[in-house]
Known about the structure:
Elements: E1 3-5, E2 12-14, H1 26-30, H2 35-51, E3 55-59, E4 62-66, E5 70-76, E6 81-87, E7 96-100, E8 107-113, H3 123-134, H4 142-161
Antiparallel strand pairs: 1-2, 3-4, 4-5, 5-6, 6-8, 7-8
Helix pairs in contact: 2-3
Amino acid sequence: MAGRECYHCKQWVDDGTSHDCWTTTEAALTQDLTEDLRDAWERLRETAVEFGDQRIYASHKSIMFSRRACYFFVRPKKSALEVVFFLRRPLRAPQVRRTERPSRAKVAHVVQIKHRDEVEPPITDWLREAYETSEAPAPRSSTVKSHSSKARASKSRKRQSA
């Protein structure tokens, strides 16, 4: 039978068959977790729900927590829950495995959780901060302003010397 291999999941899809490998559920992503990881996941989800109104949904291999935009997500893995949360400032802490800057206003922080007891401060404090700052508009950066004024001054000097 004619068909194609899905670019994302590498599954064979017959012609005329609908296929959406991006659609998944929380249950599907967490079904193979060990008991310790399942307990940690449940505590993490309960903690996030207490923050207030938000949307929680599964997308591909992650479970997203968002208000207007995603403020953190969880990737369930075999040995740990990989938690990625977004703050406006970089953190230096032993729990933070790495940071990335996906935009000028946000810093992504990656934390691994292996046990329910790890879902406590400071991690829960950082998640709450991510929740609270996710709705507020990003502050105007003074770096951008000073860069603009430097650029104007440079152009002005070039005009004067010409």
